[in-house]
Specification:
Protein name: NIPA like domain containing 2
Membrane topology: Multi-pass membrane protein
Subcellular location: Membrane
Order of helices and strands: HHHHHHHHHHHHH
Keywords: Membrane, Transmembrane, Transmembrane helix
Radius of gyration: 25 Å
Pfam families: Mg_trans_NIPA
Number of domains: 3
Distance between the termini: 77 Å
Length: 366
Protein backbone atom coordinates (compact mmCIF):
# COMPACT_ATOMS: atom_id res chain seq x y z
CA UNK A 1 0.00 0.00 0.00
CA UNK A 2 3.05 2.23 0.27
CA UNK A 3 3.25 2.61 -3.51
CA UNK A 4 -0.09 4.47 -3.79
CA UNK A 5 -0.98 7.65 -1.91
CA UNK A 6 -3.74 7.28 0.66
CA UNK A 7 -6.28 9.35 -1.32
CA UNK A 8 -5.60 7.49 -4.58
CA UNK A 9 -5.68 4.12 -2.83
CA UNK A 10 -9.11 4.99 -1.45
CA UNK A 11 -10.52 5.95 -4.84
CA UNK A 12 -8.92 2.90 -6.46
CA UNK A 13 -10.38 0.64 -3.76
CA UNK A 14 -13.82 2.17 -4.28
CA UNK A 15 -13.69 1.61 -8.04
CA UNK A 16 -13.18 -2.10 -7.45
CA UNK A 17 -16.12 -2.40 -5.08
CA UNK A 18 -14.47 -1.36 -1.88
CA UNK A 19 -16.25 0.51 0.90
CA UNK A 20 -17.47 4.01 0.14
CA UNK A 21 -19.66 6.68 1.67
CA UNK A 22 -22.18 6.61 -1.21
CA UNK A 23 -25.12 4.33 -1.70
CA UNK A 24 -24.27 3.14 -5.21
CA UNK A 25 -21.63 3.11 -7.94
CA UNK A 26 -22.78 6.44 -9.40
CA UNK A 27 -22.33 8.17 -6.06
CA UNK A 28 -18.86 6.77 -5.40
CA UNK A 29 -15.89 9.15 -5.09
CA UNK A 30 -14.24 7.45 -8.08
CA UNK A 31 -17.15 8.23 -10.38
CA UNK A 32 -17.46 11.84 -9.24
CA UNK A 33 -13.74 12.32 -9.81
CA UNK A 34 -13.63 10.66 -13.24
CA UNK A 35 -17.08 11.61 -14.51
CA UNK A 36 -15.81 13.94 -17.25
CA UNK A 37 -13.18 11.41 -18.36
CA UNK A 38 -15.78 8.67 -18.63
CA UNK A 39 -17.82 10.85 -20.98
CA UNK A 40 -14.70 11.34 -23.07
CA UNK A 41 -14.04 7.58 -23.13
CA UNK A 42 -17.59 6.75 -24.21
CA UNK A 43 -17.53 9.46 -26.88
CA UNK A 44 -14.15 8.33 -28.24
CA UNK A 45 -15.18 4.64 -28.33
CA UNK A 46 -18.51 5.39 -30.02
CA UNK A 47 -16.85 7.72 -32.55
CA UNK A 48 -14.20 5.17 -33.53
CA UNK A 49 -16.85 2.49 -33.98
CA UNK A 50 -18.86 4.90 -36.13
CA UNK A 51 -15.77 5.51 -38.26
CA UNK A 52 -15.33 1.78 -38.89
CA UNK A 53 -19.01 1.50 -39.90
CA UNK A 54 -18.69 4.48 -42.26
CA UNK A 55 -15.62 3.03 -43.98
CA UNK A 56 -17.40 -0.29 -44.47
CA UNK A 57 -20.40 1.49 -45.99
CA UNK A 58 -18.16 3.44 -48.37
CA UNK A 59 -16.37 0.24 -49.36
CA UNK A 60 -19.73 -1.37 -50.10
CA UNK A 61 -20.71 1.64 -52.24
CA UNK A 62 -17.49 1.36 -54.27
CA UNK A 63 -18.07 -2.37 -54.84
CA UNK A 64 -21.64 -1.78 -56.01
CA UNK A 65 -20.53 0.90 -58.45
CA UNK A 66 -17.76 -1.34 -59.79
CA UNK A 67 -20.27 -4.10 -60.60
CA UNK A 68 -22.48 -1.83 -62.72
CA UNK A 69 -22.35 -2.09 -66.51
CA UNK A 70 -21.99 1.68 -66.74
CA UNK A 71 -19.87 2.77 -63.77
CA UNK A 72 -20.78 6.14 -62.29
CA UNK A 73 -18.67 8.47 -60.13
CA UNK A 74 -18.69 7.47 -56.47
CA UNK A 75 -20.04 10.86 -55.39
CA UNK A 76 -23.32 10.12 -57.19
CA UNK A 77 -24.03 7.21 -54.82
CA UNK A 78 -26.39 7.91 -51.90
CA UNK A 79 -24.81 5.00 -50.02
CA UNK A 80 -21.36 6.60 -50.33
CA UNK A 81 -22.68 9.90 -49.01
CA UNK A 82 -24.29 8.05 -46.11
CA UNK A 83 -20.88 6.61 -45.23
CA UNK A 84 -19.25 10.02 -45.61
CA UNK A 85 -21.81 11.57 -43.25
CA UNK A 86 -21.11 8.92 -40.61
CA UNK A 87 -17.37 9.42 -41.11
CA UNK A 88 -17.66 13.16 -40.49
CA UNK A 89 -19.78 12.55 -37.38
CA UNK A 90 -17.24 10.04 -36.10
CA UNK A 91 -14.31 12.39 -36.65
CA UNK A 92 -16.16 15.26 -34.94
CA UNK A 93 -16.96 13.00 -31.98
CA UNK A 94 -13.36 11.82 -31.73
CA UNK A 95 -12.21 15.45 -31.87
CA UNK A 96 -14.66 16.44 -29.12
CA UNK A 97 -13.50 13.58 -26.87
CA UNK A 98 -10.12 15.28 -26.44
CA UNK A 99 -11.92 18.12 -24.69
CA UNK A 100 -13.19 15.78 -21.96
CA UNK A 101 -10.40 13.25 -21.40
CA UNK A 102 -6.57 13.18 -21.41
CA UNK A 103 -4.67 12.33 -24.60
CA UNK A 104 -3.27 9.23 -22.90
CA UNK A 105 -6.81 7.91 -22.51
CA UNK A 106 -8.37 8.92 -25.85
CA UNK A 107 -5.55 7.92 -28.21
CA UNK A 108 -5.41 4.17 -27.33
CA UNK A 109 -9.16 3.87 -27.96
CA UNK A 110 -8.45 4.02 -31.69
CA UNK A 111 -8.37 0.23 -31.53
CA UNK A 112 -12.19 0.31 -31.40
CA UNK A 113 -12.25 0.96 -35.16
CA UNK A 114 -10.27 -2.26 -35.70
CA UNK A 115 -12.63 -4.17 -33.42
CA UNK A 116 -15.57 -2.62 -35.25
CA UNK A 117 -14.24 -3.76 -38.63
CA UNK A 118 -13.80 -7.29 -37.33
CA UNK A 119 -17.34 -7.25 -35.88
CA UNK A 120 -18.82 -6.03 -39.18
CA UNK A 121 -16.95 -8.73 -41.12
CA UNK A 122 -18.43 -11.35 -38.78
CA UNK A 123 -21.94 -10.02 -39.44
CA UNK A 124 -21.60 -10.07 -43.22
CA UNK A 125 -19.32 -13.07 -43.75
CA UNK A 126 -21.01 -15.20 -41.06
CA UNK A 127 -17.63 -16.52 -39.95
CA UNK A 128 -15.97 -16.09 -36.56
CA UNK A 129 -12.20 -16.35 -36.40
CA UNK A 130 -10.38 -17.38 -33.26
CA UNK A 131 -7.94 -14.48 -33.86
CA UNK A 132 -10.82 -11.98 -33.67
CA UNK A 133 -12.04 -13.40 -30.36
CA UNK A 134 -8.54 -13.47 -28.86
CA UNK A 135 -7.67 -10.00 -30.15
CA UNK A 136 -10.97 -8.54 -28.97
CA UNK A 137 -10.53 -10.05 -25.51
CA UNK A 138 -7.02 -8.63 -25.18
CA UNK A 139 -8.14 -5.19 -26.38
CA UNK A 140 -11.16 -5.03 -24.05
CA UNK A 141 -9.03 -6.11 -21.08
CA UNK A 142 -6.49 -3.44 -22.00
CA UNK A 143 -9.24 -0.83 -22.18
CA UNK A 144 -10.45 -1.72 -18.70
CA UNK A 145 -6.95 -1.14 -17.35
CA UNK A 146 -6.59 2.08 -19.35
CA UNK A 147 -9.81 3.57 -17.98
CA UNK A 148 -9.16 2.43 -14.41
CA UNK A 149 -5.57 3.63 -14.14
CA UNK A 150 -5.67 6.61 -16.53
CA UNK A 151 -4.25 9.89 -15.21
CA UNK A 152 -6.81 12.24 -13.73
CA UNK A 153 -6.30 15.79 -15.02
CA UNK A 154 -8.97 17.88 -13.29
CA UNK A 155 -7.52 21.33 -14.03
CA UNK A 156 -9.28 23.51 -16.59
CA UNK A 157 -7.26 23.99 -19.76
CA UNK A 158 -7.30 27.71 -20.58
CA UNK A 159 -5.53 29.67 -23.31
CA UNK A 160 -3.01 31.11 -20.85
CA UNK A 161 -2.18 27.63 -19.60
CA UNK A 162 -1.63 26.44 -23.20
CA UNK A 163 0.68 29.42 -23.78
CA UNK A 164 2.70 28.51 -20.71
CA UNK A 165 2.97 24.92 -21.90
CA UNK A 166 4.22 26.06 -25.33
CA UNK A 167 7.21 27.92 -23.87
CA UNK A 168 8.05 25.36 -21.16
CA UNK A 169 11.52 23.81 -21.30
CA UNK A 170 10.34 20.16 -21.47
CA UNK A 171 8.23 20.86 -24.54
CA UNK A 172 10.92 22.98 -26.23
CA UNK A 173 13.49 20.20 -25.73
CA UNK A 174 10.98 17.62 -26.98
CA UNK A 175 10.20 19.76 -30.05
CA UNK A 176 13.88 20.16 -30.96
CA UNK A 177 14.48 16.41 -30.61
CA UNK A 178 11.39 15.65 -32.69
CA UNK A 179 12.38 18.09 -35.46
CA UNK A 180 15.89 16.60 -35.67
CA UNK A 181 14.50 13.06 -35.84
CA UNK A 182 11.94 14.02 -38.48
CA UNK A 183 14.58 15.77 -40.63
CA UNK A 184 16.82 12.69 -40.51
CA UNK A 185 13.94 10.42 -41.56
CA UNK A 186 12.90 12.88 -44.28
CA UNK A 187 16.48 12.93 -45.61
CA UNK A 188 16.52 9.15 -45.98
CA UNK A 189 13.03 9.26 -47.49
CA UNK A 190 13.77 11.97 -50.07
CA UNK A 191 17.48 11.68 -50.83
CA UNK A 192 18.14 7.98 -50.27
CA UNK A 193 14.68 6.80 -51.46
CA UNK A 194 14.25 4.75 -48.27
CA UNK A 195 10.54 3.96 -48.14
CA UNK A 196 10.57 1.28 -45.47
CA UNK A 197 7.30 0.97 -43.56
CA UNK A 198 8.98 1.88 -40.27
CA UNK A 199 10.44 5.08 -41.75
CA UNK A 200 7.08 6.16 -43.20
CA UNK A 201 5.04 5.38 -40.11
CA UNK A 202 7.59 6.97 -37.76
CA UNK A 203 7.18 10.23 -39.70
CA UNK A 204 3.41 9.81 -39.39
CA UNK A 205 3.75 9.27 -35.63
CA UNK A 206 5.98 12.32 -35.16
CA UNK A 207 3.46 14.49 -36.98
CA UNK A 208 0.63 12.84 -35.05
CA UNK A 209 2.17 13.91 -31.74
CA UNK A 210 1.81 17.55 -32.83
CA UNK A 211 -1.69 16.86 -34.14
CA UNK A 212 -2.99 15.49 -30.84
CA UNK A 213 -1.44 18.38 -28.90
CA UNK A 214 -3.22 20.86 -31.18
CA UNK A 215 -6.49 18.89 -31.21
CA UNK A 216 -6.51 18.64 -27.42
CA UNK A 217 -5.89 22.38 -27.09
CA UNK A 218 -8.53 23.41 -29.65
CA UNK A 219 -11.18 21.03 -28.29
CA UNK A 220 -10.52 22.04 -24.68
CA UNK A 221 -10.59 25.77 -25.43
CA UNK A 222 -13.89 25.39 -27.28
CA UNK A 223 -15.31 23.36 -24.37
CA UNK A 224 -14.27 26.01 -21.84
CA UNK A 225 -15.70 28.75 -24.07
CA UNK A 226 -19.05 26.94 -24.28
CA UNK A 227 -19.14 26.82 -20.49
CA UNK A 228 -18.98 30.62 -20.39
CA UNK A 229 -15.27 31.50 -20.24
CA UNK A 230 -14.40 32.82 -23.70
CA UNK A 231 -11.04 31.51 -24.90
CA UNK A 232 -11.42 31.92 -28.66
CA UNK A 233 -10.09 35.49 -28.71
CA UNK A 234 -6.55 34.41 -27.82
CA UNK A 235 -4.03 34.06 -30.69
CA UNK A 236 -2.87 30.68 -29.37
CA UNK A 237 -6.25 29.19 -30.34
CA UNK A 238 -5.70 30.01 -34.02
CA UNK A 239 -2.05 28.96 -33.85
CA UNK A 240 -3.21 25.54 -32.68
CA UNK A 241 -5.78 25.34 -35.49
CA UNK A 242 -3.04 26.10 -38.05
CA UNK A 243 -0.71 23.52 -36.47
CA UNK A 244 -3.51 20.95 -36.51
CA UNK A 245 -4.30 21.52 -40.21
CA UNK A 246 -0.66 21.42 -41.41
CA UNK A 247 0.30 18.35 -39.39
CA UNK A 248 -2.86 16.50 -40.49
CA UNK A 249 -2.16 17.22 -44.17
CA UNK A 250 1.41 15.89 -44.12
CA UNK A 251 0.40 13.01 -41.85
CA UNK A 252 -2.19 11.91 -44.43
CA UNK A 253 0.43 12.17 -47.20
CA UNK A 254 2.89 9.77 -45.59
CA UNK A 255 0.16 7.42 -44.36
CA UNK A 256 -1.27 7.22 -47.88
CA UNK A 257 2.23 6.39 -49.17
CA UNK A 258 2.53 3.57 -46.63
CA UNK A 259 -0.85 2.06 -47.52
CA UNK A 260 0.07 2.27 -51.20
CA UNK A 261 3.36 0.38 -50.79
CA UNK A 262 2.46 -2.14 -48.08
CA UNK A 263 -0.37 -4.41 -47.05
CA UNK A 264 -3.06 -2.90 -44.84
CA UNK A 265 -2.58 -5.81 -42.43
CA UNK A 266 0.95 -4.52 -41.80
CA UNK A 267 0.19 -0.79 -41.80
CA UNK A 268 -2.76 -0.83 -39.37
CA UNK A 269 -1.11 -2.44 -36.29
CA UNK A 270 2.24 -0.66 -36.69
CA UNK A 271 0.59 2.71 -37.23
CA UNK A 272 -1.68 2.15 -34.21
CA UNK A 273 1.28 1.30 -31.97
CA UNK A 274 3.41 4.22 -33.20
CA UNK A 275 0.55 6.73 -33.07
CA UNK A 276 -0.57 5.73 -29.57
CA UNK A 277 2.98 5.80 -28.21
CA UNK A 278 3.72 9.23 -29.67
CA UNK A 279 0.36 10.59 -28.46
CA UNK A 280 0.96 9.37 -24.89
CA UNK A 281 4.49 10.82 -24.86
CA UNK A 282 3.25 14.18 -26.14
CA UNK A 283 0.49 14.22 -23.51
CA UNK A 284 2.99 13.44 -20.75
CA UNK A 285 5.45 16.13 -21.86
CA UNK A 286 3.12 18.93 -22.99
CA UNK A 287 0.09 18.51 -20.71
CA UNK A 288 1.97 16.75 -17.85
CA UNK A 289 -0.74 14.12 -17.56
CA UNK A 290 1.23 11.70 -15.35
CA UNK A 291 2.84 14.34 -13.18
CA UNK A 292 1.29 13.16 -9.89
CA UNK A 293 0.48 9.56 -10.83
CA UNK A 294 1.61 6.69 -8.61
CA UNK A 295 4.10 4.11 -9.87
CA UNK A 296 1.55 1.28 -9.81
CA UNK A 297 -0.97 3.33 -11.80
CA UNK A 298 1.62 4.10 -14.49
CA UNK A 299 2.65 0.45 -14.71
CA UNK A 300 -0.93 -0.83 -15.01
CA UNK A 301 -1.76 1.85 -17.59
CA UNK A 302 1.22 0.85 -19.74
CA UNK A 303 0.26 -2.81 -19.34
CA UNK A 304 -3.23 -1.94 -20.61
CA UNK A 305 -1.67 -0.22 -23.64
CA UNK A 306 0.41 -3.33 -24.31
CA UNK A 307 -2.67 -5.56 -24.22
CA UNK A 308 -4.44 -3.22 -26.65
CA UNK A 309 -1.43 -3.32 -29.01
CA UNK A 310 -1.40 -7.12 -28.91
CA UNK A 311 -5.13 -7.24 -29.58
CA UNK A 312 -4.83 -5.06 -32.69
CA UNK A 313 -1.82 -7.03 -33.95
CA UNK A 314 -3.65 -10.35 -33.52
CA UNK A 315 -6.75 -9.11 -35.37
CA UNK A 316 -4.97 -7.30 -38.21
CA UNK A 317 -2.11 -9.72 -38.89
CA UNK A 318 -4.36 -12.77 -39.18
CA UNK A 319 -6.67 -11.36 -41.82
CA UNK A 320 -6.62 -13.29 -45.07
CA UNK A 321 -4.60 -11.57 -47.75
CA UNK A 322 -6.41 -10.64 -50.90
CA UNK A 323 -4.90 -12.02 -54.08
CA UNK A 324 -5.57 -10.97 -57.61
CA UNK A 325 -7.88 -13.41 -59.35
CA UNK A 326 -5.98 -12.92 -62.62
CA UNK A 327 -2.30 -12.44 -61.78
CA UNK A 328 -1.38 -12.34 -65.48
CA UNK A 329 -2.24 -9.80 -68.14
CA UNK A 330 -2.81 -10.43 -71.82
CA UNK A 331 0.12 -8.97 -73.71
CA UNK A 332 -0.50 -10.92 -76.89
CA UNK A 333 -0.36 -7.82 -79.00
CA UNK A 334 3.04 -6.70 -77.71
CA UNK A 335 5.76 -7.39 -80.34
CA UNK A 336 8.20 -10.10 -79.41
CA UNK A 337 6.03 -11.72 -76.74
CA UNK A 338 4.78 -15.30 -76.92
CA UNK A 339 1.15 -15.98 -76.14
CA UNK A 340 2.10 -19.18 -74.30
CA UNK A 341 4.87 -17.64 -72.23
CA UNK A 342 4.65 -16.39 -68.67
CA UNK A 343 4.64 -12.67 -69.24
CA UNK A 344 3.44 -11.40 -65.85
CA UNK A 345 5.03 -12.56 -62.58
CA UNK A 346 3.06 -13.12 -59.40
CA UNK A 347 1.56 -9.97 -57.92
CA UNK A 348 3.50 -10.37 -54.66
CA UNK A 349 6.92 -10.87 -56.25
CA UNK A 350 9.54 -8.16 -56.67
CA UNK A 351 9.18 -8.33 -60.47
CA UNK A 352 5.49 -7.48 -60.58
CA UNK A 353 4.69 -5.11 -63.42
CA UNK A 354 7.67 -6.15 -65.57
CA UNK A 355 7.82 -8.25 -68.71
CA UNK A 356 9.59 -11.55 -69.05
CA UNK A 357 12.38 -10.64 -71.50
CA UNK A 358 13.49 -14.15 -72.33
CA UNK A 359 12.84 -13.62 -75.99
CA UNK A 360 15.87 -12.51 -77.96
CA UNK A 361 13.90 -10.05 -80.02
CA UNK A 362 12.76 -8.22 -76.91
CA UNK A 363 16.33 -8.08 -75.59
CA UNK A 364 17.51 -6.61 -78.85
CA UNK A 365 14.77 -3.98 -78.74
CA UNK A 366 15.69 -2.98 -75.19
Amino acid sequence: MGILPVSEWASWNTSFGGPSNGSGPLSSPWYSTHKTQLWGVLLAAASNFLISVSLSIQKCAHLRLACQTEPKPYYTSKLWWCGMTLLVLGEVGSFTAYGFAPIALVAPLGYVSVIGSAFISVLFLKTVRAADILGGTLAVTGTYLLVTFAPNVPQELTARRVQNYLVSWPFLAYSILEIITFCILLYFYKRKAVKHIVVLLMMVALLASLTVIAVKAVASLITVSVKGKMQLTYPVFYIMILLMAISCAFQAKFLNQATHLYEVTAVVPINFAFFTTSAIISGVIFYREFQSAALLSVFMFLFGCLLSFLGVFVIARNKKKEHLQIPFIDCGHIPGQKLTGKIQPDSHSSCYGTLNNEDASVKSQS
